[in-house]
Amino acid sequence: MTLSDVFVVDGARTPFLKARNAPGPFAAADLAVAAGSALLSRQRFRPDQLDEVILGCAAPSADEANIGRIAALRLGCGDRVPGWTVMRNCASGMQALDSGIANIQRGRADLVLAGGVDALSRAHLLFSDAMVRWLSQWYAAKGIGARAQLLTKLRPGMLAPVVGLLKGLTDPVIGINMGQTAENLAARFGISRTQMDFHAMRSHQRTAAALDAGHFGEVVPIADAGGRIYMEDDGVRRDSSVPRLAKLRPVFDRAHGHITAGNSSQVTDGAAWLLLASRKAVDEHGLTPLGRIVDTEWAGLDPAQMGLGPVHAATPLLQRHGLGLNDLDAWEINEAFAAQVIGCIEAWKSDDYCRTELGLPGALGTLDECRLNVDGGAIAIGHPVGASGARIVLHLLHVLRRQGGGRGIAAICIGGGQGGAMLVETT
């Protein structure tokens, strides 16, 4: 069966804003609407001519449960355009794209707005179970005497909040957080602290150079309620260096670890959208695509090794299309951690890993790092979990067009032990 082409017509994202230990200036829906409004305002069709809106979000707030529908309505799509939300952890934005692709290829849609968002600075603080039980008894208590008795049972420790973000970054099956999975990869492949810090420094340097060169044309400004305008990603450290990074203390394994805040992705708020179209829609509206999404792959692996998800997802794409690692013109691998990206490169270089974990006859080869994350990655740009999968696909298309066209893969690791990858091409 030959599947129909799915084109990426256009895309936009907000600046990615670093969380700074307090709720950021924008709710997730605000971010999604800001990026979506800018994107839709420059199209040749009206928002209500979309067939559906799909938004990935890993940590929606209680008042934005189906944030995809909220965004669709606020973007002026009207009552008749369905809006829905998907969650595949770090790949939620990529899953939104894949869901849109599937509906276009089934003939159920021709124009789809798909992307991802998260406002991680606004992740919930929760009561502990003990505090919830106490509150339940408090509201059920009859009279002053019963409540006075309950007050004697209230302990200060019960008031300590449960940090929702930390809960979300901890795998409930294996009981370890994402940073510890990166420590696992560092140990497995012998990745040194210096290697990680060098990778992190290079990410900041590449992003700073790309900002100076105007290579983030997909970013649209956003203004807060006080009139302050945010023009670009604000987590880039132009003064980043290996000696500076070496001063930071390990976060996840304080005694023996190497993963620090400096060689990890930043906790960030942001949104990214792509407009997907069938050939029929391209012709009908006179659209000029950025490129097309050729193929998608999802993979599962040991949750304790989740950072190698890009290897498990991208390798079948390469095999299916008869490609080697360096037959692609550019790669985007989301930088959850420096150790995680380095681990992917080492896994492809390893005869043992490729034989035992991927079923290959031997090592796939050495990825040319000049083709990888050429404008930096999430260590410098940030990782609003729900948005990152969409961001890397959109930016990869921009990189390819800047280079004169070609093919590339965007790949991402996914908490819980999965990987996602998309093969794209431009002309």
CATH H-level homologous superfamily name of the domain at 178-215 and 294-422: Thiolase/Chalcone synthase
Distance between the termini: 24 Å
Beta strands, count: 14
Mean pLDDT, to the nearest integer, reads 96
CATH architecture annotation of the domain at 178-215 and 294-422? 3-Layer(aba) Sandwich
| Percent helix range | 25-40%
The parts where pLDDT drops under 50 for at least 5 residues are none
Q: For this structure, what is the CATH class of the domain at 178-215 and 294-422?
A: Alpha Beta
Number of DSSP helical runs: 15
What string gives the helices and strands in order? EEHEHEHEEHHEHHHEEHEHEHEHHHHEE
- Coarse structural class: alpha+beta
How would you sum up the major sheet?
10 strands, mixed
How would you sum up the global shape? globular
**How much of the sequence is in beta strands?**
15-25%
Provide structural commentary.
- The chain is built from 15 helices and 14 strands.
- The mean pLDDT is 96.
- The radius of gyration is 22 Å and the shape is globular.
- The longest helix has 21 residues, at 193-213.
- The chain has helices at residues 28-41, 67-74, 92-105, 129-140, 143-151, 164-168, 178-189, 193-213, 242-246, 279-285, 309-320, 338-349, 351-356, 378-381, 385-402; strands at 7-13, 17-18, 52-56, 83-86, 111-119, 125-126, 162-163, 222-223, 229-230, 268-277, 291-300, 330-333, 406-414, 418-426.
- Among the domains are: 128-163, no CATH class; 178-215 and 294-422, Thiolase/Chalcone synthase (Peroxisomal Thiolase, Chain A, domain 1).
- The protein has 427 residues and is an alpha+beta fold.
- The strands form 3 sheets. Strands 1, 2, 3, 4, 5, 10, 11, 12, 13 and 14 form a 10-stranded mixed sheet that branches. Strands 6-7 form a two-stranded antiparallel ribbon.
- The two termini are 24 Å apart.
